[in-house]
Amino acid sequence: MGNIRDGSSRIGKPSRALGKHWKLSSERKEQLSLFMMGDKNPMFGKRTKGFTGHIHSKESREKISKSNTGKPCPERGRPRTTEQRLALKTLYKGMNNPNWRGGVSTLSASIRWLDEYRIWRWQIYKRDRYSCINCGYRSKGKQDIIADHIKPFSIILKENNIKTLEQATECSELWDLSNGRTLCKPCDKLLGWKYRKKKLS
Q: What is d(CA 114, CA 108) in angstroms, rounded to the nearest whole number?
């Protein structure tokens, strides 16, 4: 191959002798990367104005969809640091979230989206080995078990006069592991507070 410094190498053009299965070595890839870096790149300093606000046709969208089918998402599985997670959480919080509808969620529903609630639920599942304490059913990973408050969630909120998420976070009774249990959905209908409340009324 030619000298990479004078740009005479055939970048991206394999020789006919090597055929279509020709592959670059790791050293050659590094050389080409250095050769096309910064102001050596033909697109350096240029803006692709032709594609700004460009709307793809239906046929073009179908081709893009087919070409990406089966390929893993580049962001999926990529670990984020604690700082990144907190930054994203703050960025899309409240009115900044595209799903914001003017604060229509109830306090009870909002508490269940807190990190504290997710940690509490995970600890209950882990302690009970992802099994219903009533019938022994073991979860198959299809959201078929529930972390239930023995002393009802709504009564704790009422007795502690919890009106905000900050108050809910500071309430130790709400996150007491001894007040939690793992139930499967059929047992939750028998033992859960929603259904006990219906029987009492």
A: 10
